[in-house]
Amino acid sequence: MQPPPPPAEKSPSPPPQPPLAATPGPLAQRAREIYMKALTTTIQTCSYSAFAACFPTPAAQKPEVLKSAWKQFVDKCQERGQWEWGEIERERGVVEGFNGLEGVLAEARGRMNKSKTQPPPSGDQQPQPQPPPHTLPPSILYQAHLITPLTPIHTTLSSYLTASQTENAQLYDEILAQRREIEKLVEEVEARVGDLKEAGAVLGGAVEEGTLKGVLGEGEGMDG
Fold this sequence. Notes:
The chain contains 7 helices and no strands. By secondary structure, the protein is mainly α.
């Protein structure tokens, strides 16, 4: 009798597919379970005896009516709490957030397993150990979060600042040229004013000496 053939090796099972965005994954389901358990435990603290102690007269005269009201109150609180959790999940994207966290954790596990299978680098190629994120100072953490969204803004502002500086330099050169032109005109005007003052002084002296007519006559003779 021949021995049975050895069983074929089973192929490794594929990794589980990440949950869809709208499908609660394990973390989202666990969070929902914890909330529902806490909600039920909180509501159970409102027992009928504690409820009846707040309404002693109805509890003594109509206990069945009060018990019905207590049951409706408890059920309404349970229903309201479950509805509130559903609204929180929808508005805050709780399921999507937990599913995204699961993807990050799965990627981290894959990298960790991959690093275990690879031989460690030797010598100078061995990387330096990085400090854990929770030990970094706050300045490094918020800079790491802000550098990506602020980089394009910084580039735009730098371009705008460079263009403004170039324009300001051109305006400065134009203002200097206009200032030199104004100074030249002022010098010419001052020279003309000086000439007029000298002419006025000569005429004033001639008037005082009574020789203005002679000066004017000499001028007319020169013109003739």
